[in-house]
């Protein structure tokens, strides 16, 4: 079967890029090797986007496909018009800067950014919006500026700047800010940075009508499906995604993504990875997912292996290969065992995996030792506390004793009086005992003399 016929969803992605005229995606697709490059170049030749892309189309067709095309006249005309607009706007901006007219300066930077975008220079457009930040005078203007910055940062794949701008907008805490407009860029930034679990958290909070001019609904389902497979359990996928009413309509744009999730939940791993491979260009043609695709598939593959062994205590290698449809799965499984992600033992003679049985007696002894050590530590701390208390070095007890003796006028002196009285009475008792001993000794001496 032909690759293009097999990757029907990939063609849908190309068609959507054409319909929405997403310049940054078109530029990315032309920068990588793919089976759709020539057909896209041919379409762009008759459907110009901007001078930057149009020039690249002609040069690529001549260099890589030997077309021998001349540069169209409309490119030079458009470049001349944009250059004239740029010079006029820059002259006005200098005048506004000299007179410190904040609002006029801000709007001039906006006009500069629009001109750069028409020319296809996203870097210069972003720099113009960044300059605008110094001339903001209200919260609404701050939100507007950072919304533009987020849009350009998405096109440039500047994920740190996306996150920073989202934080700036959230710090204002304006009630009328649409949460969907921030959740989608946040998910894109997390995807680019490899935070797959955060992508799922953001996209599962979207409303049914959520949309973004640069991230169509088909891309949202692609991001959500693969990130969920890489991080979520079967139960979480079912509850957060498959049973989520707000997300059901979005799966209609990429139907295979829903099948992927169902295969994972049903432990149909061979069908799962077969479907992933058939639609790989739908992921590789996306500028944000392209660099993450191999890492995501590897994470999904390992999670499926671990999940598969949870239901068995003993499984043969042949059954494992049959379930996954991959003859090279043994090496991956052995790596998972060595890294302690799988608690298994492999019988290389009979080609059977056995779940390692735990020693009940050893586990019980280890628990007893742990409890004894914990009790010993607690006892030592208690004895130490008692010694500190006896030495009157515990601050709380000293203050409590002082507070307990107070109760009226002269209350603080009562404990001292009582102590003095106890000492005096003890001294009297000792004196009486001494007198009694002296008297008895004298009586004995008198009795002895009389007997003589």
Characterization of this structure:
Among the domains are: 178-311, Alpha Horseshoe (Serine Threonine Protein Phosphatase 5, Tetratricopeptide repeat); 313-355, no CATH class; 358-400. Helix content is 73%, strand content 2%. The chain has helices at residues 3-6, 8-20, 23-31, 37-46, 51-65, 73-99, 102-119, 122-132, 139-156, 159-172, 180-192, 196-203, 217-231, 234-242, 245-248, 255-265, 269-278, 280-284, 293-309, 317-324, 329-338, 360-390, 395-405, 414-451; strands at residues 314-316, 344-347, 352-355. A three-stranded antiparallel sheet has the order 1-3-2. Helix 6 packs antiparallel against helix 7.
List the helices and strands and how they pair.
Elements: H1 3-6, H2 8-20, H3 23-31, H4 37-46, H5 51-65, H6 73-99, H7 102-119, H8 122-132, H9 139-156, H10 159-172, H11 180-192, H12 196-203, H13 217-231, H14 234-242, H15 245-248, H16 255-265, H17 269-278, H18 280-284, H19 293-309, E1 314-316, H20 317-324, H21 329-338, E2 344-347, E3 352-355, H22 360-390, H23 395-405, H24 414-451
Antiparallel strand pairs: 1-3, 2-3
Helix pairs in contact: 4-5, 6-7, 7-8, 8-9, 9-10, 10-11, 11-12, 12-13, 13-16, 13-19, 14-16, 16-17
Domain 26S proteasome regulatory subunit Rpn7 N-terminal: 75-240
Region (Disordered): 395-452
Keywords: Cytoplasm, Nucleus, Signalosome
């Amino acid at each position: 079967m032909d690759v293009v016929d097999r990757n029907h969803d990939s063609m849908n992605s190309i068609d959507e890029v054409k319909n929405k005229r997403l310049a940054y995606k078109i530029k990315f697709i032309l920068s990588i090797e793919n089976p759709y490059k020539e057909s896209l170049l041919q379409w762009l030749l008759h459907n110009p986007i901007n001078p930057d892309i149009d020039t690249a189309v002609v040069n690529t067709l001549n260099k890589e496909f030997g077309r021998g095309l001349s540069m169209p006249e409309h490119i030079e005309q458009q470049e001349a018009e944009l250059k004239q607009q740029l010079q006029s706007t820059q002259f006005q901006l200098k005048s506004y800067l000299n007179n410190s007219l904040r609002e006029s300066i801000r709007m001039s930077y906006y006009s500069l950014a629009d001109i750069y975008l028409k020319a296809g220079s996203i870097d210069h457009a972003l720099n113009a919006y960044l300059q605008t930040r110094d001339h903001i005078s209200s919260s609404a203007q701050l939100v507007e500026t950072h919304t533009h910055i987020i849009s350009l940062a998405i096109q440039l794949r500047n994920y740190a700047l996306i996150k920073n701008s989202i934080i700036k907008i959230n710090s204002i805490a304006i009630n009328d800010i649409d949460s969907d407009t921030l959740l989608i860029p946040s998910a894109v930034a997390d995807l680019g940075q490899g935070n797959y679990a955060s992508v799922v958290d953001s996209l599962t909070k979207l409303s049914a009508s959520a949309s973004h001019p640069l991230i169509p609904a088909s891309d949202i389902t692609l991001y959500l499906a693969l990130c969920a497979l890489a991080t979520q359990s079967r139960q979480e996928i079912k509850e957060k995604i498959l049973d989520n009413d707000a997300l059901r309509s979005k799966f209609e744009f990429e139907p295979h993504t829903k099948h992927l999730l169902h295969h994972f939940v049903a432990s149909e791993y061979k069908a799962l990875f077969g479907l992933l491979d058939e639609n790989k260009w739908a992921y590789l043609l996306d500028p944000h997912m392209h660099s993450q695709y191999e890492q995501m598939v590897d994470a999904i593959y390992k999670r499926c292996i671990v999940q598969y062994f949870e239901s068995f205590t003993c499984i043969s290698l042949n059954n494992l290969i049959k379930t996954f449809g991959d003859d090279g799965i043994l090496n991956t499984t052995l790596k998972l065992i060595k890294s302690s992600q799988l608690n298994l033992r492999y019988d290389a003679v009979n080609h059977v995996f056995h779940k390692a049985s735990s020693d009940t007696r050893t586990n019980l002894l280890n628990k007893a030792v742990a409890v004894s050590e914990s009790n010993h530590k607690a006892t030592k701390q208690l004895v130490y506390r008692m010694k500190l208390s006896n030495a009157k070095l515990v601050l709380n007890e000293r203050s409590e004793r002082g507070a307990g003796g107070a109760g009226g006028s002269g209350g603080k002196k009562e404990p001292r009086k009582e102590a003095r009285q106890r000492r005096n009475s003890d001294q009297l008792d000792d004196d009486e005992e001494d007198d009694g001993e002296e008297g008895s000794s004298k009586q004995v001496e008198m009795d002895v003399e009389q007997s003589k």
